[in-house]
Amino acid sequence: MIKGLRNIAPYVPGAQPQEKNIIKINTNENAFPPSPGVLKALSEFKGNRLRQYSSLDNHDLCQALANQLGIKQEQIIVGNGSDDILALAFLSFFNSGDAVLFPDITYGFYKVWADLFQIPFEEIPLSETFELVTGDYVGRKNGGIVIANPNAPTGIFKTLSEIEQIVKANQDVVVIIDEAYIAFGGESALPLLSQYDNIFITRTFSKDAALAGLRVGYGIGSPKLISVIQAVKNSYNPYAVDSIAESLATAAVMDTSYYDGINAEISQTRDWFSDELSALGFEVLKSKTNFLLTKPRGVSAKALFEFLQAKKIYVRYFGDHGRLSDYLRISIGTRAEMTKVVTVIGDVF
């Protein structure tokens, strides 16, 4: 027997089917291609740059983000996707020995990281309507808090005033706000940065910037928090963002109008699709993301999942996962794709 091997249940991502002519709406990828500026930057990238290491401080990307967000460059750290940033944040900020708090239904990686890094945690149940209850995070001893806002996989958004209540009541620990889907609705927690130094916001280029395959994300916080997480990052992977990724992500930041346009269209299609499902008798949670969590009418979630897959439409089914077992998560594709999905679902009823 080999000693010292780690035994952990890993995060299970959505399927990545290799079939052609499918509608892939199972992993919350953006329905549209990257911006023209990104594609231009890719075509003009000088391949001989790859013989050198990428930037240590990712100055160009951090400066572009700082200008866009109206904050200082020293308040930003970039990494290999927001998963990288979140993992670094767990390692950097949650070392008190007290349990870290996050909802029982949220991004599944939080629990995996806590287990992997041997951080005690407590999952706080969402309400019967899948709402995060603000009071559950006030007056409770903890070693940190993690909140996805809007939440995943529910899509539900908490107001800035409620987020501030949580941040204000827990100023002795770091409160992470995961804003992976903030471009599709809701209000960012960025205004809280000037008032509280215990808030850390994470974002990704995978969703709103249509760059899931690039793997770039970033964190925003006080210079003190950034210095801590930067030190941890440099302790094991200082070159986390490669030269191509930095160049393309910087170009994406510069193409704000393009992304504002496509993400507004996605949000409009989401609301239209929600109305269509409701008209079929489905229960649909109010979403501020690029996906919907829905409970089918007259057929089990598993049966509808299998029916759609047979029609080459891939959605996310969580299996025997407690309260989620009756629900499907459906990402929002183009209007043409979602129109076809409505037609195919209508064939079931």
From TrEMBL:
Keywords: Amino-acid biosynthesis, Aminotransferase, Histidine biosynthesis, Pyridoxal phosphate, Transferase. Pathway: Amino-acid biosynthesis; L-histidine biosynthesis; L-histidine from 5-phospho-alpha-D-ribose 1-diphosphate: step 7/9. Its cofactor is pyridoxal 5'-phosphate. Residues 21-345 form the Aminotransferase class I/classII large domain. The modification N6-(pyridoxal phosphate)lysine is found at K207. It catalyses: L-histidinol phosphate + 2-oxoglutarate = 3-(imidazol-4-yl)-2-oxopropyl phosphate + L-glutamate. Its EC number is 2.6.1.9. It comes from the Bacteria. It is an enzyme of class 2 (transferase). One of its GO terms (biological process) is L-histidine biosynthetic process. InterPro entries: Aminotransferase_I/II_large, HisP_aminotrans, HistidinolP_aminotransfase, PyrdxlP-dep_Trfase, PyrdxlP-dep_Trfase_major, PyrdxlP-dep_Trfase_small. One of its GO terms (molecular function) is pyridoxal phosphate binding. NCBIfam families: hisC. HAMAP family: HisC_aminotrans_2 (MF_01023). Homodimer. Belongs to the class-II pyridoxal-phosphate-dependent aminotransferase family. Histidinol-phosphate aminotransferase subfamily. This is Histidinol-phosphate aminotransferase.
